[in-house]
Structure formats: structure tokens, C-alpha cells
Write a structure and sequence with these properties.
659 residues, alpha/beta, 2 domains, 5-stranded antiparallel sheet, 3-stranded parallel sheet, 20 helices, 13 strands, globular
């Protein structure tokens, strides 16, 4: 080996001369590369290493009080200026959002298209599910990719001695040997189950949404009955698709109940309803009514409470002979008749949103609390009306998103993710949100809290609408836990992990992997790549079908010299294009069914209201716990720093990450 060889410092030279890869800790580079780099979210640069802001805290103080303090010129710990800027950015945005939510008189969120707009990019379930207890599928992604011969040619050019200059910006004439073609790659396979272990529990609560202005369609509030009816429709439809018999209990309610006071009775005036609707509701709303089969459909409900229905019928009413369990088609027509009788058309979207959230509630062991229904007869019922048709026609897509509770969880909790936030300043970002909404959490004003979330991410508003009307009081505690520990329910597996498929289906970005990135840039005459872009590159071309998904959505910090990137990835540096969702493939035994009918354009999806980002002059930060930053940094860097073989690149044993 020549005496002047740079192999000890240049990993590419090492690879050329020895034929083996040697990976340094490229995600925590030496010198000051981690302190400044071009940020894809704002096109600017982060704090330079000579920042005039000083932390003023010793390292032992950090361990003593477990608070986040800035540290200049550290490879991992953010600077004091980065912490302050992140906090005040979040505080400004969420303070403005809180103000908008407090002024919001209704639950109609600007920019939200309703639940049918939410599922436009979701593939429908196949119609034939006979004998299946679950179904598997995987996404297809497309992006430019070199021909295999051209890839080898490009690698040969890189491996020739004397051509090292082509690996950085010192030779701008280097180009791929041929233009790329559009290639498709298979993504991570997912399983969707068609059953739950036990029905989802619910009860009635009288003080749910006392403000008449926020009721979906005053004066009648029949959303609780609609949820029960629509959950029946979902269950019956799935059973029919599986080739199973629709079997629901036939016990009918009487007009009086022992041990039930007059205040506990709910009067339902059905004198002008058809005999079939009266019979169906009598069965559906009876005490202890439930699905009589195993396995249980995902939307099955069971009532736990003291309230009972008294159903008022016409004197000439007699029970029809069609049996006890209606088909999904009959259920759909009954729902439309119910809406026509009591003017519930405007409540349908909220009720469907709540229904698709039922499997998620079941998955998280949450009980629903529905408002006591108040139904007032329309003066002139519109019997020719069929408002439920548009939902029944999209039932297969609604089912797909509904039976993926992890997908729904990832979308809900991504409301706290923000583009451009580095993983080591997550504590400052979440603390700023917590500082704004802490009074809302303490007052347990779930309605105001969810209004904020719907305003901040209008595309996800239907999911939060479902959370609001299912009414669990546990949400305030879950939000508090997540903002302080990154765990929404510590005793459960996290449901907040970002999911690429959900982001593609719903058009809501959840992590830096859903962003395009900027590709290489120049800094002081040197070609650089941000570590978030490097993670995208490695993921797209190595781990797209890997089951090990990104633990958190916030991006790695710092940058890497282009010449220090693995040689097999160099061919893509000048072909920087976004990975695009191309479609979905269902696996049905030996058969595969592909769906490419509609793809959400993430660039067009509205993800935030028009919030003014005004940063006032702030003097002092509140105490910020370091735990979220340390947790996110440790996991994100470990996930992002994998080599070509899938092994983790050697990371420094930094004391800030040791716990």
C-alpha cells in the first residue's frame, strides 16, 4: 500500500483498494458536520457551531434533573439556540391553532372533505372473502431505477483507479450512463384481521356535547342510534362477503323494565316508521342483543348501562315475518328511512367516522360513551330519500381502513409530527405543544382538544371526528402521556409508529420518509447529503419491504460527505426523485389482485390551516424533559444507520443516549 494512501480516512478508497466496506458513524460525523446543513423543510441552515447562545449547564446537571439543556459543539445534544427556536416555533403555531379552535362554533372544519374524502386512496376489500379470517396485502412503490447493465457499468466506472473525483462535486461532468426507467418495488406486507376477541363496549352519557351549536344537526341528535345501525351494517356486509350467516339476537325490548327508573328510559317514537324499521330497531336496541357467532365481526357492539328504550308504535303495528337478522341491503335502507324520519342526514358522516374507529377502540381497550339520543319527528318525512347510498357504495374502502387499527393509530398520533424537526429537539417541540394545551387537558375539554387536532391536520379530521363522538374520556391522559414520554398508552404496544401505507392512502405525511428531500448540495466546495436524505436513500433501495419500520417520524440531524456514502448508492445521487405510491396488491391464496385506480397526491393534500407563524420575543423557556429527545434520537439513529447487510453501523457510545 502506498505510503501516502488515504485509506485510513477515506472509506471509499478503502473499498477500492481492499474490496471490503468500512462504515464510519456517518450519522454522527466528526468535526462540525452535524451542527449545520441545508434543511429540506425551509431551505435554510441550522445553528452554526459558533453560536453566541451558551447552555450554561454542565453535563452532570443534565443527569441530575433529566431536563434538556443546550450544548454547543456536541455531536448529539442540540444547541441552546436550536432548542429555543424549536420551542417557540411550536408554541406559536399551536397557540394560534388553539385560538382558532376556540372561535370554531361548529365541527365543520375548513378543508375537510368528510370520511368519503378520507378514503379515496384506500383500496377496496375484494368481494370474495369466503373462508378467510384475515387477508394480506402489500403496497407497490415506483421510482426511477437504472437498468441492471447500466448499474454494473456505473459501478465499474466508480471502481476504476483515478476516478474517485466522480464521487463528489469536483467533477461535475459525471452522469449516469443511460436515463433511468420507472421501476416498481414491493413494500412491506401487512395483515388485516376480520375479527375481534370481544365486542366493543359502550354506554350512554347524558352530558355529552351539551352545547347545541356543535351538535351535528340540532335539534335531533340520533348519532348514537346511527352508530349502532351502521355498525350492524358493517358487520352484516362482512359476514356476507365471507359467505357466513347473518345472525343477531332476536330479543325485543318491552315497554317497561324492572329496576329501571323513568329517568333511565329513552323514548323512541316510531309511530310513522315502517313495520320493518320498527322490528329491526327493536331487535338492535334490545338489552343484551349481540352477534351470535364466532369469530366476532370487528364492528360488534355490546351495551353496558342502565338506560333502556321504550319504543312507541302505531296502534295497528304488527311484527313482520322476515325474521330476526336483516341483510346488509335491508339495513342500509333502514338507515336511510331513519334519517328521513328524524332529519339525521347531516349526522351520517360523523356516525360513519365513529363506526370506522370502533376496531381501533377495541384494539386499545377503550370503551365508547355515546350521547343519549334525542329524536324529534320531522313534520314531513322524506321517505323517497336515500342518504346512506353514497356510504354503502364505498363500504369496501371504509372496511379496509377500519380493520387496520395500527394504521389508524399512526395517522391519529402523527398530528404531533412536524416536518423539519430533528429527532434530538423532539422534547422542545412536544413541550411547546404541551405548554399550549395543558389547560385544555386539565379541564378535560375533549371537544376543544379534538377541534385543535382537526384544524391542525384537516385531512385527518374524520378520524378525530370519530374519536369525539365515541367519547372516551381517556384521550386527555393519552395525549398527556405521549407529549411527555412518547408513549400514548405505556401498558400497550405503541400505535403511534409512522406507517408509509397510511400516509399514501390518506394523503397525510407522517414522517421524513414521506418527504421528497433535496438530494446533494454544495457546502464550501464539498458535495454533501443530509442524513435524512441518506436515510431515505438507504430505505428506498434496501429496506422498502422490511418489516422493521421507522420508530418515530422525526428526521436524523447532520450531513454526510457524498464521497463517504456507500458506493452502491452513488448511482442514485444524481437521480434524486421521490418514491411514489403506485398501488396495492391483495393476496388471496395463489391469486393476487392489484388496485391502481386512485392515488392520493401528497403535494395537494391540505395538512395545516393557514396559521401565522409569528415568533414573539421570549425570554425564558419552561423546564423541558430530555426523555423524548433521547428516546427519539437513540431509536431513529439506530434505525437509520444500517449498512448494506442490514447491520447497524457503529455509533458512538454517547453518554446522553445511555440510560
Amino acid at each position: 500500500m502506498p505510503a501516502n494512501s488515504n485509506m485510513g480516512n477515506d472509506r471509499v478508497a478503502h473499498w477500492i483498494e481492499t474490496g471490503t466496506n468500512r462504515f464510519e458513524a456517518s450519522f454522527i460525523p466528526s468535526d462540525n458536520h452535524s451542527s449545520y446543513y441545508k434543511n429540506e423543510s425551509n431551505g435554510g441552515t441550522s445553528t452554526p457551531p459558533n453560536s453566541s447562545i451558551s447552555s450554561g449547564f454542565a453535563e452532570e446537571d443534565q443527569a441530575a434533573d433529566d431536563l434538556l439543556h443546550g450544548c454547543q459543539d456536541d455531536k448529539v445534544i442540540p444547541s441552546a439556540e436550536d432548542i429555543e427556536r424549536t420551542f417557540w416555533r411550536g408554541e406559536s403555531q399551536w397557540r394560534e391553532c388553539l385560538g382558532l379552535a376556540e372561535q370554531q362554533q361548529t365541527l365543520s372544519i375548513p378543508g375537510s372533505l368528510g370520511v368519503l374524502g378520507l378514503i379515496k386512496g384506500v383500496p377496496p376489500l375484494p368481494s370474495g372473502l369466503r373462508g378467510l379470517k384475515a387477508i394480506r396485502g402489500y403496497p407497490m412503490w415506483k421510482f426511477p431505477h437504472l437498468e441492471s447493465d447500466d448499474m454494473q457499468s456505473s459501478m465499474d466506472d466508480v471502481s476504476k483507479p483515478g476516478t474517485l473525483a466522480t464521487l463528489d462535486d469536483s467533477d461535475v461532468t459525471w452522469q449516469p450512463t443511460s436515463p433511468p426507467k420507472v421501476d416498481e418495488r414491493r413494500g412491506n406486507e401487512k395483515t388485516f384481521r376480520f375479527s375481534i376477541p370481544e365486542p366493543t363496549r359502550y354506554q350512554f352519557i347524558k352530558e355529552c356535547n351539551p352545547n347545541a351549536k356543535v351538535s351535528p344537526a340540532p335539534p335531533s341528535n340520533g348519532i348514537s342510534i346511527l352508530i349502532q345501525c351502521i355498525s350492524y351494517y358493517f358487520c352484516a356486509k362482512l359476514l356476507e362477503m365471507q359467505g357466513r350467516k347473518v345472525k343477531f339476537t332476536s330479543q325485543e325490548p318491552s315497554t317497561s323494565h324492572l329496576g329501571c327508573s323513568e329517568n333511565d328510559k329513552i323514548l323512541l317514537d316510531l309511530r310513522y316508521a315502517s313495520p320493518d324499521l320498527v322490528c329491526w330497531l327493536s331487535i338492535l336496541l334490545a338489552p343484551n342483543s349481540r352477534w351470535m357467532m364466532k369469530p366476532i365481526p370487528p364492528w360488534a357492539l355490546v351495551y353496558e348501562g342502565v338506560n333502556r328504550f321504550d319504543i312507541l308504535t302505531s296502534p295497528t303495528y304488527s311484527s313482520p315475518e322476515w325474521g330476526t337478522s336483516s341483510s346488509s341491503e335491508k339495513a342500509a335502507s333502514f338507515i336511510s328511512e331513519l334519517c328521513a324520519l328524524f332529519g339525521l342526514d347531516d349526522q351520517l358522516d360523523a356516525a360513519v367516522s365513529a363506526t370506522i374507529m370502533l376496531p381501533f377502540y377495541n384494539f386499545r381497550k377503550l370503551a365508547a360513551t355515546l350521547p343519549v339520543p334525542i329524536l324529534l319527528q320531522r313534520s314531513h318525512p322524506k321517505h323517497a330519500h336515500y342518504p346512506f347510498r353514497q356510504y354503502s357504495e364505498q363500504i369496501s374502502q371504509l372496511m379496509t381502513i377500519s380493520i387496520g387499527p395500527r394504521l389508524i393509530g399512526s395517522s391519529l398520533w402523527s398530528v404531533f409530527w412536524e416536518s423539519g424537526i430533528d429527532c434530538n429537539v423532539v422534547s422542545a417541540w412536544l413541550s411547546s405543544i404541551h405548554e399550549v394545551i395543558k389547560p385544555v387537558l386539565e379541564s378535560q375539554d375533549t371537544e376543544l382538544l379534538i377541534k385543535m387536532f382537526m384544524l391542525y391536520r384537516p385531512q385527518q379530521a374524520p378520524l378525530w371526528m370519530g374519536v369525539l363522538w365515541l367519547g372516551s374520556s381517556d384521550w386527555a391522559g393519552m395525549v398527556e402521556s405521549y407529549l411527555t414520554t412518547l408513549e400514548e398508552q405505556p401498558q400497550f404496544t405503541r400505535a403511534s409508529q409512522p406507517d408509509l401505507v397510511t400516509a399514501a392512502w390518506l394523503g397525510c405525511k407522517q414522517s421524513f420518509l414521506d418527504e421528497v428531500g433535496l438530494g446533494c448540495y454544495e457546502e464550501n466546495g464539498t458535495r454533501m447529503l443530509s442524513n435524512s436524505d441518506l436515510a431515505r436513500l438507504r430505505f428506498n433501495y434496501r429496506y422498502l419491504a422490511n418489516a422493521e419500520e421507522l420508530p418515530y417520524g422525526w428526521q436524523p440531524f447532520g450531513s454526510t460527505l457524498a464521497k463517504e456514502i456507500e458506493p452502491e448508492l452513488h448511482q442514485y445521487l444524481d437521480l434524486w426523485h421521490a418514491r411514489e405510491y403506485h398501488g396495492w396488491v391483495w393476496i388471496l391464496g395463489d391469486e393476487k389482485r392489484c388496485f391502481h385506480s386512485y392515488v392520493i397526491d401528497n403535494t395537494q393534500a391540505q395538512e395545516m390551516p393557514d396559521i401565522k407563524h409569528t415568533y414573539g420575543i421570549m425570554t425564558k423557556l419552561p423546564p423541558i424533559k430530555s426523555c423524548p429527545s433521547r428516546e427519539a434520537t437513540s431509536r431513529v439513529l439506530a434505525w437509520a444507520s444500517r449498512d448494506a447487510c442490514g447491520d447497524q453501523i457503529n455509533l458512538p457510545n454517547h453518554p446522553w443516549l445511555s440510560d
